[in-house]
Request: fold
Amino acid sequence: MSMATEQQVKLYLAYWFQLGKKVLLRNGREQLLPKPIFSENSYSSEFENCWERLIDPKSGDCYLEGTNQTIQQLLSPAWEIIDCARCQMPVPVRQLGQPCPECPCSDIPLWPNTELPLPRSPVDTRERLNNLTQRLQKREYKIIPKKSQPIDRYDGEESRN
Reply:
C-alpha cells in the first residue's frame, strides 16, 4: 500500500465526474462538475481549472459529492486509491486503521450497470494508432497457393470423339 499520488486523485475525480458526481468546495457551499473532462489525450482545461481550485487553500474543504474525505486528505500519506469491490471504480481507503465503508457509488441508482461503458482515463489516440500501425506492419501475411485442380466445364456441347 502506498499513498495516493496527485495523478491518482485526479483520475479518481475524473471517473466520478463521468458519472455526474460533483465536487463540493467551500465546505459544501459551491459545486463544480467540469465539462468536458477530457480534451484529446489529456484532461480538459475545465478539468485542470477545477483541479487548481480544489488544491487552493482558499477553497476550504473540498470533497467529492457523497464522500467525507477532503481532497487534501486524499493527497496525504494516510490515504490511497483502490478499486471498489462492488463497482470497480476508484475509492479512497485509509492506509492504516479501519477502512472507509462508503463508496461514492452507494447513492447512484442502478449502479454498477454492466450494460453501460465504464468511465475511462484519457486516451492518447495518436499513441494507440501508432501502436496499431506497428502491429499491422510487423504482421507477416503468408499467401499459400491452393493446389490446382482440373476444372470440369460443361459448355453445352457434347464431347465429340
